[in-house]
Design a protein that fits this description.
With about 325 residues, the chain is of the alpha/beta class. It folds into two domains: about 200 residues, L-asparaginase, N-terminal domain (Rossmann fold), CATH 3.40.50; about 110 residues, Rossmann fold (3-Layer(aba) Sandwich), CATH 3.40.50.40. About 25% of the residues lie in helices and about 20% in strands. The strands form three sheets. Strands 2-1-3-4-5-6-9-10 form an eight-stranded mixed beta sheet, with helices on both faces. Strands 11-12-13-14 form a four-stranded parallel beta sheet, with helices on both faces. Strands 7-8 form a two-stranded antiparallel sheet. Strand 13, helix 8 and strand 14 form a beta-alpha-beta unit. Helix 4 runs parallel beside helix 9. It binds glutamine. Glutamine binds next to loops. Its EC number is 3.5.1.1. Belongs to the asparaginase 1 family.
């Protein structure tokens, strides 16, 4: 039986981290082990795929930037266009793994599997989760069952969709959750088992094309809390933000001290997207604010950090708020 060809693109993170002792599970150094060492540590990979590695970056994922994403997205598209690449695994720090996954979910132009994988324990720790997570990710990336399902996230024997998964614990190995919408499946056997897919469009079905982009529009996130004011909002706009994600309290409610400044910002051209800091649920259009009248957009079920990604890509196409709202109900 012919094994699939899976490329492993390494970007850093804890999966490539090393600690002082085998019991060091926090306070270690991320992004120290190279891709070849990661592959060599799991000889079992060779039984399920022909793997080859490429070191794309070597960073902790909190330092991921829009420029890293454009570089990575273009590299993934180039590789997947080659007939000798059947799937891609991306090793990544877990802090922004969900963001990179969702970015790729919107810009990859292929139905071939792309699987993001990380680890919560450094490679030197007792029961390090990196090796089994990497093995699972390679298995998924080489699986016909993963074709056309959008960008996937593999941790803890679970398969999640890029759109809906989030990091939900600061430090435990089961940190990744797709809480209410549900994960896609499991790895067991060794085989990828899928049970559900998102109805939202992804990869080859999107209208976004990064092939000629070298930058993305500046979009920043304003966090909602009791006693908040408009200082952060106005500072972001003064610093050049073209779009603002308002990560509001509850169903995206707007504090009395902030709402007039949001309205003024919209009137002078800034795109305003209402989202929620709550983490679950639909952001109701025309609920906590009259979005039709104020010309705001709502983030649907996207969390603020993913709403930022969709808005950046959407603004490369249009600044029409009806069109932007359509995109938030499509992806
Ligand atoms: N568990 C991790 O991967 C976190 C390490 C680091 N902060 C990162 O995101 O790259």
């Amino acid at each position: 039986q012919k094994l699939p060809n899976v490329m492993i693109l390494a970007t850093g993170g804890t999966i490539a981290g090393t600690g002082a002792t085998s019991t060091t599970t926090v306070g270690y150094t991320a992004a120290t082990v190279g891709v070849q060492q990661l592959i060599n540590a799991v000889p079992e990979l060779r039984k399920v795929a022909n793997v080859s590695g490429e070191q794309v970056f070597q960073i902790a994922s909190e330092s991921m930037t829009n420029e890293h994403w454009l570089t990575l997205g273009k590299r993934v598209n180039t590789l997947l266009a080659q007939p000798n690449v059947d799937g891609i695994v991306i090793t990544h720090g877990t802090d922004t793994l969900e963001e990179t996954a969702y970015f790729l979910n919107l810009v990859v132009k292929s139905r071939k599997p792309v699987v993001l994988v990380g680890a919560m324990r450094p490679s030197t720790a007792l029961s390090a989760d990196g090796p089994i997570n990497l093995y699972n990710a390679v298995l998924i990336a080489g699986s016909q069952d993963a074709v056309g399902k959008g960008v996937l996230v593999a941790l803890g024997d679970q398969i999640h969709s890029a759109r809906d998964v989030t990091k939900a614990n600061t430090s435990t190995p089961d940190a990744f959750k797709t809480a209410e919408l549900g994960m896609m499946g499991y790895v067991q056997g060794p085989k990828a088992h899928f049970y559900r897919v998102s109805t939202r469009k992804h990869t080859t079905e999107t209208e976004f094309d990064i092939s000629s982009l070298n930058a993305l529009p500046q979009v920043d996130i304003v966090y909602g809390y009791a006693n908040m004011n408009a200082v952060a909002l106005n500072a972001f706009i003064a610093a050049g933000a073209k779009g603002i994600i308002h990560a509001g309290t509850g169903d995206g409610s707007l504090a009395a001290k902030v709402k007039p400044d949001l309205i003024a910002a919209r009137k002078s051209g800034t795109i305003i997207v209402r989202s929620s800091r709550v983490g679950q649920g639909i952001l109701a259009r025309n609920g906590e604010a009259n979005d039709d009248e104020l010309d705001f957009v709502v983030a649907d079920t996207l969390n603020p950090q993913k709403a930022r990604i969709l808005l950046m890509l959407a603004m490369t196409k249009t600044s029409n708020t009806k069109e932007l709202q359509r995109m938030f109900y499509t992806y």
